[in-house]
Write a structure and sequence with these properties.
Blueprint: H1 3-16, H2 21-40, H3 51-62, H4 74-93, H5 119-126, H6 134-149, H7 153-157, E1 164-165, E2 170-173, E3 182-185, H8 188-201, H9 225-238, H10 247-260, H11 265-272, H12 277-281, H13 288-298
Antiparallel strand pairs: 1-2, 2-3
Helix pairs in contact: 1-2, 2-4, 6-8, 6-10
Length: 316
Amino acid sequence: MTLGEAIAQYLETRRKRGLSPRTILADAFWTERFELFCSHIGVRRIAEFESHHLASWLHFLRSGRNKKGKPFSGATIDGAIQVVRRFLRWTVQAGLLLLDPTTELMVRRRLLLHNVLSEEEVDALLNAPDLTTLLGIRDRAILELFYATGIRREECSRLDLADVDLEQRILIVHTGKGQKGRALPICESLAEALAIYLERCRPHLRPRPGQKGFFLDMFGKRLAYAGFGRLVRFHAKAAGLRRPVGPHALRHAFASHILEGGADVREVQELLGHDCIQSTDVYTHLRPIERLRAYRRTHPRARRPRSDDNPDPNFP
């Protein structure tokens, strides 16, 4: 079977799973470029593919350029690698390859998690919108929502009025990956921000009758997907953050901060809407001193009185 035929079958299985259009688009985009790369190095049949070809693909990505002539970002490279790794693992499951070529390639998912927003940076970002303006009130509610729930940008863009219950403090997400719904808790600060938006802002944006969208633009229409990214970047710059910050950075911060606060990784998996625990494991990057403290706090053999030669309570 040719590589192109295998990719076509793989994309069809992804579509049948009901994944989001953007996920399917990313799969098609990177597998098409992967096929072109393999053709360039002389690999045209799936059975000819080996692990060293995957290493060459990684080198190609790291030396590649985007449309503006700039090197691919770490997040872009990571996304491309993950697409191809999923495809190759599928070929093994489908019996097209005997051995998984991804097992020998140790690619650490970066996702810029080593540079997660600190709590202080998040506070600065959340306080950046001008609450004396309609859009400032709206933007504050959006930023609070991203950080308080870890919701995806696409999920936020499709949020309807009926999905938010401030009395029960529950937010229903219907458009997660794989079209799976989940219920997210609404904390006090988020509930306050959403209530202020609904009372003081949304009616003045003049929504048309029957408009179900929760967040609206200045013309009373549902705020578009791209609008969420623009407003986050705008307020990040206003807050003085010196690195690119988008909606996904707040999702990363949400997951990282609650894990560091003691949340179980399985609980975080459910909140994020991840299909598998491996997707959530990339957030378990606590500093070694925090890991050691957690170990000594929880492991039976580690819970014992401190000796007199170590009286400092801050010592791990």
